[in-house]
C-alpha cells in the first residue's frame, strides 16, 4: 500500500515538473551595435543589456549595422537583423499551451526553434501578409515594404514549417526545405526556391549559433604587470589584448572600478587605485564575451614609493664662489612638490614647483655674506636644495664660499645660469666708475666696454653659433685700480624648432567633413623668426602665432603646413573633405496595404503603423517625423509613421549627409482614418424613435426580431434619428421586441452591434380612478392605473409635490401634509394639480386634476377615469 502511494506521488511530481518546464522565458543573449528595448506599458526605449529578461508585449529595435540574439528557455533562439523592429506578442503559458508569437514589424529575423512540449504549440512569426508556424526547424522571416517572406533552411525536416495568410489559417500550406514563401496584400501566397542571399543568411546564422554553443571563453593577455609585484604612484595602468566586442572589467579588492567594451583587440586602462604607499591590493581583470563566458586574471600588488627626479639648472657648478650679494636657484622636478633651500641647515626659501615642475628663487645673502667675511670664515658652507613628496625626499648639495670681490660689481643680467631661446642676450650691471669690462664666450673674447660715471654698463651678446650646443661659459672680467675680478655664468642657447599648433578652427559637425568652402586655420610655431607657409602661401605671424583663411573647392583637400629655419624644415598635413551640397530628397511613398485592400483614396491611410519609403541621394541619415529611418538600398530609406488619432497627419522628412548638410522636404500630409467606428444610442430609449451618433459618412443597418438587416440611411454628420414606426406597426401590443443596430463606415468597417430587448408597448397608461381622504392634518390621494407606472404629482406651474410608484396591479397612493398643498390653493378654495404617469416603455400620460383637492368643503367624491 505504501509503495503504491510512493509511485503515485513520484509520478505526480514528475508530471508537475514537466508542466512547469513548458513555461517559456526569453532574454537578450548577445548584442552588436545599437539595440533598444521598449518594455510593455512604457513609452521610452532603453538600451538592451546582455541577459536582460524579456516579457510578452516587449519590443526590440536594432539600428544600422546592429543586431541582437534572443534566447528562449527551451533552447530556441531568434537573431534580430539590422534595421529591424519586432515585438514578443505572446509566450507559451505555464501549462505549455498556446503559441509563442513574434511580430516582425519591419526588417528580418532568423529563427532556430526547438519543439515545444505540448502537441499543437508552436512558434508563430507574423508579418503583414504571411504568418509562419514553426516547429523544431530553422527559418528566416522578413517584412519589407509591407510584404512578408518566409524562407526554410534546406536542412529542415519536411513538414516542420507551415505558412498561411493572416486570418486564413485554413489556407495554410507546408513550406518544404529550401523553399521561400511570399504573401501578397490580396491574401495569396507564392512559393519559389530560396535565393542565394537567403541561403547565405541562413548558413551564417547557423555558423554563429554553433560558435555561441561550442565556443571557448575569450582570450585575455596582460602586457605590463605580473601576478605579484609592485607599482609606483597613485595610478594603475593596465595594457592588454582580448577580442572585439568583449567587455573588460577591472576590479580592486572585489570592487569594480572600470568597464569598457572593446572595439579592437588591444586595450589600455588607467585610473587611480586609491591606495597609500605600502598598502596592498587584490587586482582582478576579467574579459566577458557576449554570451557571458569569462576569463579572469588575478594578482596581488603593493604600492611602493615613486622616486623623485630633481635637476638643478642654476647654479650648475657644485662649488660656488659667491662674490655677489644674491644667488639664483632654479630647477625642475615633479609638479606640485614642496621645495626648500637651506644653507648650513638654515631655511632660506620654501615653496612649491609649478604645474610644469619648475621652481625659481632669488635669495638675498647680503647679511650672511657680510657676517662670514667679517668673521674671516672662508670655509665652504653647504647649500641644500631639497624636494619632498610625502615621506620621499630628494636633495642636491653644493659647496658655497663667500668671497669679497677685488673690484666691486653687481651683475643684474643674467643674475644666474640661464637658458635662452633667442640668439641675443642683453647683459647689464654696475661696477666702479670707469672700470673696464671684458666678456668672453668659452674663453673667446667677444666684447670690451667701460662703465659710465655712475658705474653702469650694458652690452648685447650673440649666441647664434652656439645654438643647441652645451652651455657656454660666459666670463665677465672687471679691471679697476690695478685690481682684477672675474665671474662666470653658464648660458645655454636652446630653442625647439616645432609646429606647436596647426588646426582648423572652423566648426565641423562631422570632421573631417566641412560644409562651407572657406575654412579658418590657426597655427603656432617656434622660434618666431622661422618662416611658415600653408599650401605654399607664406603666412604673416605675430610672435609665432597666425590665423589664416583658405577658400577651398568641394572634394578631398590636403592642408599642408611647412616650417623652415635655415636648413631645418618641418612639415604637417591635415586631410579634410569639403562638402557644401545637401542631399536630395525624391519621392516619399506611404505604403498601407490595408488602405489599398479597402479601396481608400490616395492620401488616406487606415493602419496606425505604416511603412514610409523615401528616395534620397547622398544622405547618411534620414528622419521621418523626428524618428530615424533605415537604409534599404538604392538610395532609399524606410521608416514608420505612427498615427494616434483620426485626422491629418504631417509627414516631415529630413535628410542629413555625412558632412552634416541638412535638407527638409516640403511637408506632406496624409489623412488617418483608422480609429474604430463607434455606435451610441442616446438614453432613454422610447420606441418607435431612436436617437444616437456614429462615425460621419457611415451607414446604419437595423434588424428586428432576428430578421435580415434593413438598410438604413446614410449618416453624413454622425448624428442620426431612426423612426421605426413602420417596422414595429405589425407587432402586437405586449409582445417581445429585439432591435439590433450596427453601423458601417465608408470602408466597410463595422461597429459592434447595439442590441435592445423590451416588451412592445406604445399605449399610454390610463387613470382609472382617484379619491381624496383627509386624515387629520394629512391629505391622502389613492388612485388606480391601467398598468404599473411611476406617478408624479405636480402643480399646474410644474412644481413637483410628490413622486411614487404603483404596485404590480397599478394601485398607488400619495400622502402629504396639508401644508404641502395650502400654499397652492386658489381663490375658489381648490388646489389645481396635474398627475403625470410614465410606464416602463416610457409612454407618458398627463391628467389635470382641476378643482379637486379642497379643504373648506367636503372632499369631492371619487372620480372614474376610463
Keywords:
single chain; 866 residues; mainly beta; Jelly Rolls; Immunoglobulin-like; 75 strands
In short:
Mean pLDDT is 85; it is low at 1-22. The chain is mainly beta and 866 residues long.
Average pLDDT, to the nearest integer? 85
CATH third-tier fold name of the largest domain: Jelly Rolls
Whole-number count of domains: 6
**Tally of helical runs:** 6
Biggest beta sheet summary: 17 strands, mixed
Radius of gyration: 50 Å
Q: What is the percent of helical residues? A: under 10%
The number of E-state strands comes to 75
Query: Roughly how many Å apart are the termini?
Result: 85 Å
The CATH level-2 architecture of the largest domain is identified as: Sandwich
SS class: mainly beta
CATH class of the largest domain equals Mainly Beta
- Overall 3D geometry? elongated
Amino acid at each position: 500500500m505504501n509503495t503504491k502511494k510512493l509511485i503515485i506521488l513520484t509520478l505526480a511530481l514528475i508530471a508537475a515538473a514537466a508542466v512547469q518546464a513548458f513555461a517559456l522565458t526569453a532574454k537578450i543573449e548577445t548584442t552588436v551595435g545599437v539595440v533598444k528595448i521598449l518594455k510593455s506599458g512604457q513609452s521610452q526605449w532603453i538600451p538592451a543589456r546582455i541577459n536582460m529578461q524579456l516579457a510578452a508585449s516587449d519590443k526590440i529595435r536594432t539600428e544600422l549595422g546592429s543586431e541582437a540574439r534572443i534566447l528562449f528557455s527551451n533552447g530556441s533562439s531568434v537573431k534580430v537583423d539590422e534595421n529591424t523592429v519586432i515585438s514578443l506578442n505572446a509566450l507559451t503559458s505555464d501549462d505549455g499551451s498556446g503559441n509563442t508569437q513574434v511580430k516582425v514589424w519591419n526588417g528580418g529575423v532568423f529563427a532556430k526553434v526547438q519543439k515545444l512540449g505540448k502537441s499543437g504549440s508552436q512558434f508563430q512569426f507574423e508579418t503583414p501578409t504571411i504568418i509562419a508556424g514553426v516547429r523544431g526547424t530553422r527559418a528566416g522571416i522578413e517584412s519589407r515594404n509591407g510584404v512578408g517572406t518566409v524562407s526554410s533552411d534546406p536542412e529542415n525536416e519536411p513538414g516542420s514549417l507551415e505558412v498561411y495568410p493572416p486570418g486564413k489559417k485554413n489556407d495554410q500550406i507546408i513550406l518544404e526545405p529550401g523553399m521561400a514563401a511570399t504573401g501578397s496584400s490580396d491574401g495569396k501566397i507564392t512559393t519559389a526556391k530560396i535565393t542565394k542571399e537567403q541561403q547565405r543568411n541562413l548558413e551564417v546564422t547557423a555558423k554563429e549559433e554553433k560558435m555561441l554553443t561550442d565556443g571557448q571563453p575569450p582570450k585575455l593577455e596582460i602586457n605590463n604587470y605580473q601576478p605579484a609585484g609592485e607599482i609606483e604612484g597613485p595610478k594603475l595602468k593596465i595594457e592588454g589584448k582580448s577580442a572585439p566586442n568583449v567587455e573588460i572589467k577591472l576590479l580592486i579588492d572585489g570592487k569594480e572600478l572600470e568597464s569598457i567594451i572593446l572595439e579592437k583587440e588591444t586595450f589600455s586602462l588607467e585610473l587611480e587605485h586609491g591606495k597609500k604607499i605600502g598598502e596592498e591590493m587584490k587586482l582582478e581583470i576579467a574579459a566577458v564575451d557576449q554570451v557571458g563566458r569569462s576569463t579572469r586574471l588575478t594578482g596581488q600588488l603593493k604600492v611602493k614609493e615613486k622616486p623623485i627626479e630633481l635637476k638643478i639648472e642654476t647654479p650648475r657648478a657644485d662649488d660656488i664662489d659667491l662674490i655677489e650679494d644674491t644667488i639664483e636657484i632654479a630647477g625642475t622636478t615633479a609638479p606640485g612638490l614642496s621645495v626648500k633651500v637651506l644653507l648650513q641647515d638654515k631655511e632660506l626659501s620654501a615653496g612649491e614647483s609649478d604645474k610644469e615642475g619648475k621652481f625659481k628663487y632669488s635669495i638675498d645673502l647680503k647679511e650672511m655674506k657680510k657676517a662670514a667675511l667679517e668673521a674671516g670664515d672662508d670655509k665652504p658652507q653647504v647649500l641644500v636644495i631639497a624636494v619632498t613628496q610625502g615621506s620621499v625626499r630628494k636633495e642636491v648639495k653644493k659647496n658655497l664660499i663667500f668671497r669679497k670681490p677685488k673690484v666691486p660689481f653687481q651683475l643684474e643680467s643674467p643674475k644666474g645660469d640661464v637658458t635662452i631661446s633667442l640668439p641675443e642676450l642683453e647683459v647689464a650691471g654696475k661696477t666702479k666708475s670707469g672700470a673696464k669690462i671684458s666678456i668672453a664666450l668659452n674663453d673667446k673674447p667677444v666684447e670690451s666696454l667701460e662703465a659710465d660715471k655712475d658705474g653702469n654698463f650694458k652690452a648685447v651678446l650673440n649666441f647664434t653659433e652656439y645654438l643647441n650646443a652645451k652651455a657656454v661659459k660666459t666670463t665677465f672680467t672687471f679691471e679697476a685700480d690695478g685690481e682684477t675680478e672675474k665671474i662666470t655664468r653658464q648660458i645655454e642657447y636652446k630653442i625647439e624648432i616645432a609646429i606647436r599648433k596647426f588646426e582648423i578652427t572652423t566648426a565641423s559637425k562631422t570632421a573631417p567633413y566641412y560644409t562651407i568652402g572657406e575654412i579658418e586655420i590657426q597655427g603656432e610655431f617656434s622660434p618666431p623668426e622661422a618662416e611658415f607657409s600653408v599650401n605654399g602661401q607664406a603666412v604673416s605671424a605675430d610672435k609665432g602665432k597666425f590665423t589664416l583663411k583658405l577658400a577651398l573647392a568641394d572634394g578631398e583637400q590636403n592642408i599642408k603646413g611647412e616650417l623652415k629655419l635655415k636648413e631645418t624644415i618641418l612639415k604637417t598635413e591635415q586631410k579634410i573633405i569639403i562638402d557644401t551640397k545637401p542631399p536630395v530628397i525624391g519621392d516619399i511613398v506611404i505604403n498601407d496595404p490595408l488602405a489599398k485592400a479597402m479601396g481608400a483614396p490616395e492620401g488616406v491611410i487606415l493602419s496606425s503603423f505604416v511603412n514610409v519609403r523615401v528616395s534620397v541621394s547622398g544622405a547618411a541619415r534620414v528622419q521621418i517625423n523626428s524618428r530615424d529611418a533605415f537604409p534599404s538600398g538604392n538610395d532609399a530609406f524606410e521608416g514608420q509613421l505612427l498615427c494616434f488619432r483620426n485626422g491629418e497627419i504631417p509627414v516631415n522628412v529630413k535628410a542629413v549627409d555625412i558632412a552634416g548638410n541638412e535638407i527638409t522636404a516640403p511637408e506632406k500630409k496624409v489623412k488617418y482614418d483608422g480609429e474604430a467606428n463607434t455606435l451610441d444610442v442616446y438614453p432613454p430609449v422610447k420606441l418607435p424613435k431612436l436617437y444616437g451618433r456614429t462615425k460621419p459618412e457611415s451607414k446604419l443597418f437595423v434588424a428586428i426580431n432576428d430578421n435580415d438587416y434593413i438598410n438604413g440611411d446614410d449618416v453624413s454628420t454622425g448624428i442620426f434619428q431612426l423612426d421605426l414606426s413602420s417596422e414595429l406597426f405589425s407587432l402586437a401590443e405586449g409582445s417581445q421586441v429585439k432591435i439590433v443596430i450596427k453601423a458601417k463606415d465608408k470602408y466597410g468597417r463595422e461597429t459592434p452591434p447595439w442590441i435592445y430587448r423590451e416588451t412592445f408597448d406604445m399605449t399610454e397608461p390610463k387613470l382609472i380612478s382617484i379619491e381624496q381622504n383627509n386624515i387629520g392634518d394629512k391629505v391622502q390621494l389613492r388612485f388606480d392605473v391601467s398598468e404599473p407606472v411611476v406617478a408624479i404629482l405636480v402643480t399646474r406651474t410644474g412644481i413637483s409635490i410628490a413622486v411614487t410608484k404603483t404596485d404590480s396591479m397599478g394601485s398607488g397612493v400619495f400622502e402629504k401634509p396639508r401644508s404641502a398643498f395650502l400654499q397652492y390653493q386658489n381663490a375658489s378654495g381648490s388646489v389645481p394639480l396635474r398627475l403625470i404617469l410614465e410606464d416602463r416603455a416610457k409612454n407618458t400620460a398627463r391628467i389635470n386634476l382641476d378643482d379637486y383637492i379642497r379643504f373648506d368643503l367636503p372632499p369631492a367624491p371619487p372620480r372614474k377615469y376610463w
